[in-house]
Queue: 3 jobs
Job 1
Amino acid sequence: METKNIMIVGVGGQGSLLASKLLGHLLMEQGYDVKVSEVHGMSQRGGSVVTYVRYGEKVHSPVIDEGEADYIVSFELLEAARWLSYLKPDGQIVTSTQQIDPMPVITGAAAYPEGLVEKMRATGAKVDALDCLALAERAGSSKAVNIVLMGRLSHYFDLPEEAWQRSLEAMVPRKFLELNKRAFALGKEA
C-alpha cells in the first residue's frame, strides 16, 4: 500500500492536536505504520498551525511536501486556501466554513478574501465545506469542531464505524465523550 498523507490545518487553539492524535490512534489500530508530526506554527497565539498524519505499510518521514496531501482537513476557510498547493491533483479538502480573521484583517491592512470555496473549486480541487461550528454547537460545545471534522472525514475512509468510536473512547476524556460522539455523528451525517 502506498503511503497516504493527511494535513490538518487551522488556527491555534482549535483542537488540531486531538484530531491528529485521534487519526494516529485509529490508523495504528488498523495495522498501519503511522507518523504524526508535531504541531507547527503559532498554536498558542491564534496563528496558523499544521500537523501531518502519514500512514501506510512503512512510513519513513512525518513530513508532507507540496502536491502530496491526499486530504487537507481544515478548521478554517482561509487556512484551507493557504495550504491548497499541498493537495494532490485528485486530493480531497474537508473544511469548516468558519472564518477567523488573521492579524492583517484585524488591523485593517487587508480584507478577508471572499468566495474561497468557489476559488478552490475553480483550481480543480474537490472541496467538502460545511458549517462545522454550527454542528459543534448543536452537539453541545463550540470546541467540538475538530470532532465534527473527523466525523466528516470518516466518509472518505473505508474503516468500520466501531474503529472510529474506539479511537474516540481512547483519546477523548470521559467527561467529554458523549458530547464528542454527538459531534462526530453530526459531522458524519451532515
Job 2
Amino acid sequence: MRHELITFGVSGQLFGLDIMTIREIRAWSPVTRLPRVPEYVAGVVNLRGAVLPVVDLAVRLGWPPTDATPRNPIIVTELDDQSRGLIVHDVNDIVSISAEDLQQPETGREDTITNFLTGVAPLGEEMVMVLDLAKLMRDDELELAA
C-alpha cells in the first residue's frame, strides 16, 4: 500500500500529510487573534464566509512561533467535517511513500512530537515525518476557536 502525501517544511524539518485530508493550500492572510485559546492557535481567518481556526504548526509541535509573513502558506485541512488551517513555512511537493517504509520512532517520552506522527520515512536524502491529523487536532480547547 502507498501513501500519497503533501510535503511541507516547518522549522527546517520536512513533514507530510495525507493528501486526502488537504482541502486547499492558500496564500497567507492575517489572522484575528482570539482570547483564551491555546497558544498554538494563531487566530482565525475568513474562508469564503466561514470562520477558520488557524494553528501555528511550529508551536503545536513544541517549537518557537512562526514569524508569519506573506510567504507563509496556510494548508487548509479537513477531518470529520472540521476544517483547520495550518501555518507552515513552505509547501514542497506531492510524494508517494510505501507503507513498509513508514516507521515509528521510539523516544521513550510521552510529550514529544512523535505523539503526532503516523511515522517517519526516507524520502531521497531526507526523512519525512508523516503527521497524524487526528492526533494533531485533538484538543478540547481548539473546539472553542471553531
Job 3
Amino acid sequence: MILVSGATGYIGGRLIPRLIAAGHSVRALARDPRRVPPALRSLRGPEGARVELVAGDVLRPETLGPALAGVQVAYYLVHSMTTSAGDDFASRDRDAARNFAAACARAGVGRIIYLGGLGDPDAGLSEHLASRQETGAALRSGPVPVTELRAAIIVGAGSASFEIIRDLAAKLPVMVCPRWVRSRCEPIGITQVLDYLVGVLEEPRTVGDVFEIGGGEVVTYEEMMRQCGTEMGRRIWLVTVPVLTPRLSAYWLNLVTAVPMSLARPLVEGLRNDVVTQDQRIRSLIPVERMSYRDMVRHALAEEQAGPLASRWTRAVTAPAGVPARLGATELAYERVVPAPVPAEHLFAAVARIGGATGWYFADRLWRLRGGIDRLLGGVGMRRGRPHPTAVAVGDPIDFWRVEDVVPGELLRLRAEMRLPGEARLEFVIAPTAHGAVLVQRARFRPSGLGGWLYWYGLYPAHAVIFGGMARAIIRAAIRSGA
C-alpha cells in the first residue's frame, strides 16, 4: 500500500493516477476526503483497484495512525504555504513533517518520499526555499529512510509558477522588473517530476538520499517570460530597475496574475536565488528525457486548451476567509425563498454553473468591481475562475468563494475567501414541490467587531437587490435549459 499525503494538491492530484496506472494500491490522505477531486475518487487501476480515501491532518498526529496502517511507502506532498497559515508557514511545515515522520515510524512504514525545493543552502536561501529543505530535514529526524527530490519551478498546466509567467506574458507587453528576473533557474516539466517520483519507488539506490532534479536547460526568469510570450504569439519588452522590493513585486504579481498576495510574496522572495542542479546523480539512476523550457510551455498551453485540468494550484491554495469572528459570534442572515416552475434537477444544474465563465447571473459588473477591490486589498479577486464549467465538488474554488459543501440536486454552500471584516457564506438549497421546485437562498455573515456590523448593515440594501436578482436569474436560466 502506498500513501499519498497532500492528495488535493497540484502534484498529488497528478501522481495518484500514475501510481494507479502502474498497478499500485493507493491511499489518499486529506484533511477532508470530500475535497479529493471526483476524477480521483472514481479512478480504477488495471486490476480494478480504486483509490482509498482517508482523513488525516499532519498537524494533528493522533489522526495519522489509521491512515498509515499497512502502508509500505508514504509520499509527503504537504506544504503549509498553500493554506491560510500566514507568516508562520515555515514552523508549521517543520512541525507537520516531524509529526508525519514519527507517525510513519510508529506504523512501521518502510520509506518516505518527499518533493522539496532546489537551492544552495549556503547561498542565503529565502524563507520559502529554506523551509522546503528544513521540511526534508524534519522528515529525516525519524528512523524511517527518506528519499528527497529537490526541484525548482515546475512547469505544467495548473501550476502556480507557470500561471504567473503565463499571465505576465499575456497581459503586459511592457514590464518594469526587479533584478531578480536575471536569476538563473533550471525549470522542470510536470511530466518529468512525475517520472522521477514514480521512478524512485522502484530504484532501491535512491532510498535514504537527497537528489536534485531539473529539466536540463538553464534559463533566466527574463528568458522564461520572453519564451512563454513567443509561444503565445506575443512579444514583450522588459525594463530592469533596482528599486522594486520583494513586497512591491509581490503586490504587482497579485494585481496582474491569479496568485494571491499570501502566495506571491514568498514565491517572489525565492526568485532572488539561483536554482540550478549541481548534483546530477539521479540521471544515471532514473533516465528521464531532458526537455527544453519551450517544450514545457508548449505542453502546458496545449493542456490548458484541451479542457478541464487534472489538478490546479487553486484547489490546494486557500485564502483567509475574512477576519475570523470570535467564538460564539452572532450570525446575521438574509434569506429569500423563490418558487420555480422547473424540476429540482434543472434548478440545481443552473446553481452549479455559477461563477467562472457563467458569471453570477445578476449585476456581474458589481461582482467584478468587488473582485477588483479585493485584489487591491491583496485578496484572491475573481481571477481563479472554477475548475469545471458545470460540475462542483467540495474544495473547488469559484472566483473568490470556495465550495464548502455540496449535495447533488439539493445544496451548494460557498465560503467567502475575499477580504472581509468577518466570515461570509452563500447557500443555495433546492427542494422539489408539486409544481416544480423551490430555491432557498441564504447569505450568512458572522461579523468581526464593529467593522463587521457596519459592513453588513451598510451593504444590506445592495445585497438584497443583488441576491434577489441573482435568484430570479438562476430560475430563468433553469427554465431556458429545460425548454
